[in-house]
Design a protein that fits this description.
The structure is a single chain. By secondary structure, this protein is α/β, with parallel strands linked by helices. The chain has a domain of about 170 residues: Rossmann fold. The chain is about 35% helix and about 20% strand. It contains 15 helices and eleven strands. Helix 8 links the parallel strand 7 and strand 8. The longest helix is centred in the middle third of the chain and has 18 residues. The radius of gyration is 21 Å and the shape is globular. The N terminus is likely disordered.
Length: about 325
């Protein structure tokens, strides 16, 4: 495991941890076995901080996000908000989901086509019995960039552009005055011209409201543009994390290096062989070793760590602001 120093500003943010996963494990039954979708994750989100969670499809990102939302219960470990472990009784969960709001990637799928924009945004305040519904809806739409808000009250989702629909979804979350947004691929379904607008909106909400956010994405370019810190996930576990500039300009883990190589400015394309292993059969040693370009190229053997890569388990990374990677080869340059 590698750790390097971080700035005092970043350290202060992490000391004000708002939402945290502590040794989180989430398993599901699968064909008579147990799929380890989240297999030991420590992750913290500080007050006013944006953390990007990146990785390929099927690596466990969405399951981790749903567990942080209280939509899945961990097999072991805990979700901690403001220093207190999440209580899964219905009344406590209802209060928690007012504070931690989910923004989904598909606005057409998350908006009821029979409901107007007003009804979509008012749904949360009605569930929680908040007074001043019309004012809440108008303010939420305004903050989401739909102005004047009254112009959108009686529109239906099919009458809006993709960017406007995503703003309605964000307004629905803002209507409950949350402290944390969990955004699952928030711009994946949008045209490139609109993505920048939505990312700018999320940054503005952080600046204006002090919102924290976990942004789940497969796009490292998005992480670069919006996040303070990045956590790279592979086969149910964080394999590298740290300040976004540090991780994305000098990635230590071979998996992160491969993800970075697909960006246009990358000097070399790294093509990973095969698919991520079955989460019911996680390999021994480093969980990435079967696809690792460092091991396949012989570089690991040259440094004498190839046997460790295939057989020796790596420690679960702690929740820290410092740059760190779970990699036997990378340890040599620590």
């Amino acid at each position: 495991m590698i750790e390097t120093e971080t700035s005092s500003d970043t350290a202060d943010t992490v000391h004000q941890t708002l939402l945290e996963a502590r040794d989180l494990h989430v398993e599901f039954p699968s064909r008579g076995r147990r799929a380890r979708a989240v297999d030991g994750v420590n992750l913290s989100i500080g007050a006013g901080e944006i953390v990007a969670l990146v990785g390929e499809s099927g690596c466990g990102k969405t399951t981790l996000a749903r567990t942080l939302m209280g939509l899945e219960r961990p097999t072991s470990g805990s979700v901690v908000y403001d220093g207190k472990a999440l209580d899964y009784h219905s009344k406590a969960l209802k209060a928690y989901r007012k504070i931690v709001q989910l923004v989904l990637q598909d606005p057409m799928g998350s908006l009821n086509p029979r409901h107007t924009v007003y009804e979509a945004v008012a749904e949360g305040p009605r569930i929680h019995g908040l007074p001043g519904e019309r004012e809440i809806v108008a303010e939420a739409l305004s903050r989401a960039g739909l102005r004047p808000p009254e112009r959108f009250f009686q529109r239906y989702p099919h009458e809006l552009s993709g960017g406007q629909r995503q703003r309605v979804v964000i307004a629905g979350a803002l209507a409950l005055s949350p402290k944390v947004l969990v955004a699952d691929e928030p711009v994946a379904s949008l045209d490139a011209s609109v993505r920048g607008e939505i990312l700018a909106l999320l940054l503005k909400l952080r600046a204006d409201l002090g919102l924290s956010a976990l942004v789940v994405t497969h796009d490292l370019g998005l992480a670069w543009n919006i996040a303070d810190r990045v956590a790279v996930m592979y086969l149910g576990r964080i394999v590298e994390s740290g300040p976004v500039e540090q991780v994305l300009t000098a990635p230590r883990h071979p998996y992160t290096q491969a993800l970075m190589s697909v960006l246009p400015e990358s000097p070399e394309r790294i093509v990973l062989t095969g698919e991520p292993p079955d989460p019911t059969r996680i390999p021994g040693g480093c969980r990435f070793h079967a696809r690792c370009q460092v091991l396949a190229s012989g570089k690991a053997a040259e440094t004498g760590v190839d046997a460790k890569c295939r057989s020796e388990l790596l420690d679960i990374l702690p929740a820290t602001a410092a740059a760190q990677a779970a990699c036997h080869y990378a340890e040599l340059s620590a």
